[in-house]
Specification:
TIM Barrel; glycosidase; 831 residues; globular; 14 helices; 45 strands; Jelly Rolls; Immunoglobulin-like; 8-stranded parallel barrel; alpha+beta
């Protein structure tokens, strides 16, 4: 059956204390018309009293009823109808014409409803979906609420290809020939036997037919038939990060000359292999994973999963040097996987954040035992034909990892994945701290040589309000996250013994923040492959050196490549005594991504690109002059509080620290033509040279020297204080599909076109015509503003407006106004 988007014509109302009664009796609150996907949480009023607190960025949960009235033709009586929900957060319950038709507790896996028994044919029908996210403290990050991914309708005849009924693998690949193995599940819901023909046609990216097959099938009454066809493809174009070539398989069921049913699936041709000796290889070539963990929200538009939003985020991550993402800690959307297929980004798709032990009061652990197998099946069915997906992660920082029963459960879950998909690898992300909580005292005594009594006395001193040791503890548990103590913990023999059985189960071992284990594992377990499934950005130099020098270590997944909502303030530099990972109102953004929530690449992003060996030009980063000499409280995840700007009005003659990132042997820094010194850089010096000077407006220039010869250059130029609005749109022609987006970046530039990241302007946006404002805002983590407001202040020089096309062709006129600036208008065409 072909999927058809079913996103229009919906209404939403917020339910009261009794959502069931509200849905059945029609006693919902005020209704609002909308086009899906839709995130209800991003429009809620933030409050520091919410139980979710900083975990969701102070956004509260809620219970929402989505309603759609639709016409059911009389001829559908001889067909089968399924309604597919790609993602509803959370505890979805679906009613058709008032009757319960099905539901799904997990907010990240898709599910479908067979509507046949509930429809009134030849008349209007109603579907109601209750998304109940009112049980707060169910997520450790911003979850979003409601029907935040696509809804699809699938209408088929009595004989039809099942939903997700086409599975394509490429078991045999040579340079001149490949075999696509196409499995198709065909269902006969009728009461008569029928002989049909399955026609398979494979086309390349230019729509040329490169392979085809015809399969006669006798469909017995009430039966399901499974077909398997091997189709040759000559001179195959292999899918890889560098060449993400895709094919399409069109499956058609024919009854004579009549099309009974059809569907289309996109796939890629590529091989995977994994060994400790040769690492991860794709199409026979070693690939090191330059990875980023990401959450699922899309910044100023919340969790609303629109194809263009996912495409933009994946493209930006690839441009920043990443070749792999980890969907932490939940299954990725179809839209995200489609984007990764097209852009050439590898995917580690993750199932759960917890198994049977909770991390939050109302999290998914309460449903795990009953539903995990179904969720695994949904995940694999969604992922199977995507070449970008190379690995499944069954869980994140599972607390059962230190027990025998936990290891047994790991075997069960891992084998379930292998039974569903034998061609991909399975791992689980292990956190040593969580797995070894019961042995922590023994481990710490073993590391320090202290007795338990001495350890307890030191802990009591650290917790005393007047103790200096308490100020050290204020930097969080960073001693066990980074530095000598963290390395000693990760390498400790008690930890090794505790994790041994659990980590022996999967195809490779994923370690979160256990960097010093990566190399030693090869001596302990020579056949074991290691992946840093979650690592500290600030540790990238050491991490990438380990990856480069050890074939059994296949990559690094930093936390995190793209900023996100929730876990609010965990990456903020606090100069006022506050601490990260605490409810610091009004902070709503994590603020720890290489790329911020509006798409601006922070200096850390360029530093990482240099460490990866992908950038030759030096990069200049300036530590914020307004905090010179101050020592912030910061988490282990943070790099440096710096910005790529040499505009600091009011700080003339004040001290400044300038960091130049470079892979060259030496760099020289010039200020207005005067040399500030020539210093060593490159890998031996952690790719950085630091200079201290005083601020003087003008031109700051860094020059690379390779073998003593001047090479690449980069510069920052001070901007004038008088600025104008500059607006850049990434897309000026949109589809009239209710989902297409244009991203308009607002910046402040002087008359010479120099960016001024210091200037602050209050900007108002107006959207008129054939579209709407989907979101507007800055990357400011501590604002009390809302992303559906039309007036925002710039932050670090930027704002972002996201405009969504409607269903009608026409023009969208987007204007921006700010005091003292000329009004700017952008016209978008909707076709």
């Amino acid at each position: 059956m072909l999927r058809e988007k079913w996103n229009t014509g919906w209404k939403i109302s917020k339910s009261g204390d009794s959502p069931m009664m509200a849905a059945v009796s029609g006693m919902q609150g005020e209704e609002e018309s909308l086009i899906l996907p839709h995130d209800a949480m991003i429009h809620e009023k933030r409050t520091k009293e919410t139980k979710n607190q900083h975990q969701t960025g102070f956004y509260p949960g809620g219970c929402y009823t989505y309603t759609k009235t639709f016409d059911v033709p009389g001829e559908w009586k001889e067909k089968t109808v399924r309604i597919e929900f790609e993602g509803v957060y959370t505890n979805a319950r679906v009613f058709i014409n008032g009757d319960y038709a099905g539901g799904h507790p997990y907010g990240y896996t898709e599910f479908s409803i067979c509507a046949d028994d509930f429809l009134n044919y030849g008349s209007m029908n109603m579907v109601q979906v209750i998304a109940n996210n009112s049980a707060e403290e169910n997520s450790r990050w911003y979850s979003g609420s409601g029907i935040y991914r696509n809804v699809n309708i699938l209408v088929g005849n009595q004989i039809h290809i099942e939903e997700n009924g086409v599975r394509i693998s490429t078991p045999e690949i040579e340079e001149d020939l490949a075999v696509a193995e196409v499995e198709v599940d065909i269902q006969n819901q009728g009461t008569e036997k029928k002989r049909v023909e399955l026609q398979l046609r494979i086309t390349d990216k230019n729509n040329n037919v490169v392979g085809q097959e015809r399969v006669p099938v006798t469909m017995f009454a009430g039966s399901k038939e499974h077909t398997r066809s091997r189709i040759q493809i000559e001179s195959p174009l292999l899918w890889s990060c560098e060449t993400p070539d895709l094919y399409e398989c069109h499956a058609v069921v024919m009854d004579g000359d009549t099309v009974v049913d059809e569907t289309k699936e996109t796939f890629g041709i590529r091989t995977l292999s994994l060994t400790a000796k040769k690492g991860l290889r794709i199409n026979g070539k070693e690939v090191k994973l330059r990875g980023s963990c990401i959450h699922h929200d899309n910044g100023v538009i919340g969790a609303c999963t629109l194809e263009k939003a996912e495409q933009r985020r994946i493209r930006q991550l690839k441009e920043a040097g990443f070749n792999c993402i980890r969907s932490s800690h939940h299954p990725a959307s179809r839209a995200l996987l489609d984007a990764c297929d097209r852009e050439g980004i590898l995917v580690l798709d993750e199932l759960f954040d917890c198994w049977t032990r909770s991390k939050n009061n109302n999290d998914y652990a309460q449903y795990f035992t009953e539903y995990w197998e179904k969720d695994a099946e949904h995940l694999v069915a969604k992922d199977y034909n995507h070449p970008s997906v190379i690995m499944y992660i069954s869980g994140n920082e599972i607390q059962e990892a230190g027990t025998a029963k936990g290891a047994q459960l790991n075997r069960i879950v891992t084998e379930k994945f292998h039974s569903l998909d034998a061609a991909r690898y399975v791992t689980v992300a292990i956190n040593g701290l969580l797995a070894c909580m019961d042995r922590m005292g023994d481990i710490m005594c073993d590391i320090t040589g202290m007795t338990m009594e001495q350890m307890m006395a030191m802990q009591a001193q650290a917790e005393a309000p007047s103790s200096d040791a308490g100020s050290d503890a204020a930097n969080g548990s960073t001693d066990l996250m980074k530095g000598p103590m963290a390395d000693a913990f990760a390498a400790n023999h008690i930890l090794t013994e505790t994790l041994e059985e659990f980590s022996s189960v999967t195809d490779l071992v994923g370690y979160n923040y256990l960097t010093s284990r990566h190399e030693m594992e090869h001596e302990l377990y020579p056949n074991r492959v290691i992946l840093g499934t979650e690592t500290l950005p600030s540790d990238i130099v050491r991490l990438w050196k380990i990856v480069k020098e050890n074939p059994h270590v296949i990559g690094d997944m930093t936390w995190t490549g793209y900023d996100y909502l929730g876990e609010a303030g965990s990456g903020v530099f606090y100069y006022d005594g506050r601490q990260g990972f605490m409810p610091n109102w009004p902070i709503s953004v994590a603020y720890m991504g290489d790329i911020d929530i509006i798409g601006y690449r922070r200096p850390m992003s360029y530093f990482r690109e240099i460490v990866f060996g992908l950038r030759k030009e030096p990069f200049i980063a300036v530590e914020r002059l307004n905090h010179y000499g101050e020592k912030p409280i910061q988490s282990a995840w943070i790099w440096k509080d710096e910005i790529a700007s040499w505009t600091w009005d009011g700080y003339e003659g004040k001290p400044a620290v300038v960091n130049v990132y470079s892979d060259a042997a030496e760099v020289e820094l010039f200020l207005n033509g005067k040399s500030l010194g020539r210093r060593p850089a490159g890998e031996e010096n952690d790719y950085m040279a630091s200079f201290e000077t005083v601020y003087e407006a003008g031109k700051l220039e860094a020059v690379n020297y390779r073998k003593g010869t001047e090479a690449e250059k980069n510069c920052l130029i001070s901007a004038a204080s008088e600025v104008e609005l500059c607006v850049e749109a990434d897309n000026r022609v949109l589809k009239a599909d209710g989902a297409d987006l244009a991203y308009l970046t607002v910046s402040l530039k002087d008359a010479q076109g120099n960016l001024n990241l210091q200037a602050v302007k209050e900007v108002t946006v107006t959207v008129e015509g054939a579209g709407t404002l989907q979101g507007f805002g800055s990357a400011d983590p501590a604002t009390e503003n809302y992303y559906d407001n039309t007036t925002w202040e710039t932050y670090d020089g930027y704002l972002l407006a996201v405009v969504r096309a409607g269903m009608q062709a026409g023009e969208i006129r987007v204007s921006f106004e700010a005091p003292g600036c000329e009004k700017k208008e952008v016209v978008l065409e909707v076709q």
